[in-house]
């Protein structure tokens, strides 16, 4: 709590957990091992890489058919231009998807 002089009182600072370097975090880690603030750096990196790869794969998979328009057109008895609409829709979804989330 802030006192009348604008500085923090000692009773609040006693409850705050400083880091090893003495920095007081705005988000205070709990004693729960499932708290992300208590995770090891390697676990954080693994989770970040899995989420990043999943995001990349989703975008790449939606546009994966662009190199085979003519082969797909023959299989589905459509024009290559009609097959390209799927990539156009995927691109529009990727471009505008963040606006609707």
Give a structural overview.
Helices cover 50% and strands 0% of the residues. The chain has helices at residues 10-13, 41-62, 69-76, 80-96. The longest helix is centred in the middle third of the chain and has 22 residues, at 41-62. The chain has 101 residues and is mostly helical. It contains four helices and no strands.
Structure summarized in a few sentences:
50% of the residues lie in helices and 0% in strands.
SSE arrangement:
Layout: H1 10-13, H2 41-62, H3 69-76, H4 80-96
Identify the notable features of this structure and list them briefly.
101 residues, mainly alpha
What's the count of strands?
0
- Count of DSSP H/I helices: 4
Distance between the termini: 37 Å
Helical content band = 40-55%
* Coarse shape: elongated
| Mean of pLDDT | 82
Alpha-beta content class: mainly alpha
Question: Biggest sheet, in brief?
Answer: none
Q: What is the string of SSEs from the N terminus onward? A: HHHH
Low-confidence stretches: none
Q: What is the gyration radius calculated from CA atoms?
A: 26 Å
Give the strand content.
Answer: under 5%
């Amino acid at each position: 709590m802030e006192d009348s002089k604008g500085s923090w009182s000692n009773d609040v600072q006693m409850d705050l957990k400083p880091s090893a370097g003495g920095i007081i975090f705005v988000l205070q880690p709990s004693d729960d091992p499932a708290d992300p603030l208590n995770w090891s750096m390697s676990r954080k990196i693994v989770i970040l890489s899995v989420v990043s790869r999943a995001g990349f794969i989703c975008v790449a998979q939606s546009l994966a058919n662009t190199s085979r328009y003519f082969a797909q057109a023959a299989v589905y008895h459509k024009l290559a231009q009609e097959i390209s609409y799927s990539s156009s829709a995927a691109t529009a979804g990727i471009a505008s998807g963040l606006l609707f989330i």
